[in-house]
Design brief:
The chain is α/β, with parallel strands linked by helices and 186 residues long. The protein has four helices and twelve strands; from the N terminus they run ααβαβββββββαββββ. 26% of the residues lie in helices and 26% in strands. Helix 2 runs parallel beside helix 3.
Length: 186
């Protein structure tokens, strides 16, 4: 299974590296993220810092800063785990060992029961199973925080009919693309 997933990762990374998103795709994804944020009374919204041609969701993060508690992930090197810290603006970041932006301000951790977590990925299937980068950070976080609502963010061209998954993999609640929101389990 690991070999199949590794091969899929390489394929999707290559496909994504050659994809230059249009301004319309970016605006559409941000429109649908803002729609999900405002259509429910979330206690908090956890974003990701776009990396490796992931959708640019900074406009949605800026929007949410005015209306919600907003969080971004921070990776712990020695424990290989991920937590989310609250942010109050988009100017206080540093790059971690993977080159991903992380917050550096006061360490208020994500909490609550009515929490929206936006999840980056390489691909997702119609059942909500995602293919990430292989580090397991989001898989571990999702497994230890099943009370949160998880929505993937990606471009339409990376939604596939089926992805291989293992018993520990958890499906997302839905995903957001430039075409809209696909809810799967609410």
């Amino acid at each position: 299974m690991k070999d199949v997933k590794s091969q899929l990762r390489r394929s999707f990374l290559q496909k994504r590296s050659s994809h230059e998103p249009s301004p319309i795709e970016i605006r559409s994804i941000n429109f649908w993220i803002r729609n999900v944020i405002t259509s429910h009374s979330w206690d908090a919204v956890a974003f990701f810092a776009p990396y490796r041609q992931e959708p640019d969701i900074w406009d949605s993060l800026d929007f949410a800063l005015g209306t919600h508690r907003v969080f971004l992930p921070v990776v712990s090197d020695h424990k290989r785990e991920m937590r989310f810290w609250q942010v109050s603006d988009t100017k206080v970041f540093c790059r971690n060992k993977f080159g991903i932006l992380e917050p550096t301000e006061k360490k208020i951790e994500l909490s609550g029961t009515n929490v929206l977590v936006l999840v980056p990925m390489l691909s997702v299937d119609r059942d909500g199973y995602r293919l990430g980068y292989g580090g397991g950070f989001y898989d571990k976080f999702i497994a230890t925080h099943p009370e949160f609502s998880y929505f993937g963010v990606l471009y339409d061209r990376f939604v596939v009919k089926h992805l291989p998954h293992e018993p520990h993999d958890r499906p997302l609640h839905g995903f957001i693309t430039e075409s809209g929101l696909t809810p799967l389990r609410l």
